[in-house]
Design brief:
Elements lengths: L1 H46 L6 H11 L4 H22 L9 H39 L2 H7 L4 H38 L5 H11 L2 H27 L4 H35 L1
Helix pairs in contact: 1-6, 2-6, 3-4, 3-6, 4-6, 4-7, 4-8, 4-9, 6-7, 6-8, 8-9
Length: 274
């Protein structure tokens, strides 16, 4: 009977182990989302409280916006060039050269520029935020702020979230312009189209709704990326190894969140524009 009971218990354990693993994963996910929502509400509340950390905010604008111009510009320029080449050669039998301006401009404005800027800039900025706050957490600087009756959310989170939310749309606008310029270079240099024809095609193709949809999504992307980065930094444990894990988790989580949000925001803007 003892052997039979042991065998039965082992069988039950094998059956229940996957269910427990799934349950624990779901609970961890819900706790993570709840923590993010709570930090988001605190951030919104602290944003409207005085005094505002102007110096820290301006420094974040420089770190997030100005120092990301190079990666944003290079990415957008070559994506525009690749789009022009692919359009011309893939649709060569259907007069694809005539549609280069339309394809490049609409693809960049609606989807590629917002998403690529969120992924590229978000990865750089998010990793930096998590590493900075995570290092402060494991070295007990966050606890020191609380001991001095200073809010870590107002000092650290609010300037980063606000700066990312404001700068990502600006970087996306610059990326759209550079991507269209990249398409122009290929259209004129490789495909022997006139610059006037290309630019007229771009101007007539891009509508207000396209700009509003593409740029509007980046406000949500910026807020989410910065919030995830700060939250992962504030919950970092385990010294230098923990900072590395938190940084990796930020890049992965932020990237997946951007792609998921892009689908639902695209549907939302399409419904609004109807």
């Amino acid at each position: 009977m003892t052997a039979e009971s042991s065998t039965t218990n082992q069988a039950e354990e094998l059956i229940l182990a996957p269910a427990r693993s799934i349950r624990d994963s779901v609970l961890d996910f819900l706790l993570y989302v709840g923590g993010l929502a709570d930090l988001g509400m605190q951030t919104i509340r602290q944003t409207f409280r005085r005094p505002f950390e102007t110096r820290i905010f301006l420094n974040q604008l420089d770190q997030i916006g100005v120092k990301s111009l190079s990666i944003a510009g290079i990415t957008a320029l070559f994506i525009g060039m690749v789009l022009a080449l692919q359009t011309a050669y893939a649709l060569a039998n259907f007069g694809g050269k005539l549609f280069i301006g339309k394809v490049v401009s609409l693809s960049l404005v609606r989807e590629l520029a917002p998403v690529l800027m969120a992924l590229m800039v978000g990865g750089r900025v998010g990793a930096g935020m998590t590493a900075e706050i995570g290092t402060m957490k494991v070295t007990e600087q966050i606890d020191a702020l609380r001991a001095l009756a200073s809010s870590p959310v107002r000092k650290l989170v609010v300037p980063k979230v606000l700066a990312t939310t404001l700068m990502l749309p600006l970087l996306t606008i610059i990326a759209c312009g550079l991507g269209i310029l990249g398409g122009l270079i290929v259209a004129v240099g490789n495909l022997q189209l006139s610059a006037n024809f290309y630019m007229r095609s771009v101007i007539t193709s891009v509508k207000y709704n396209d700009l509003a949809s593409g740029i509007g999504k980046t406000f949500f992307f910026g807020f989410t990326i910065a919030l995830i980065a700060c939250y992962n930094g504030l919950r970092t444990t385990g010294g230098a190894d923990g900072v590395g894990r938190a940084t990796t988790a930020t890049v992965v989580t932020a990237s997946i969140s951007v792609l998921i949000m892009d689908f639902f925001l695209t549907k939302l803007f399409l419904l609004i524009s109807l």
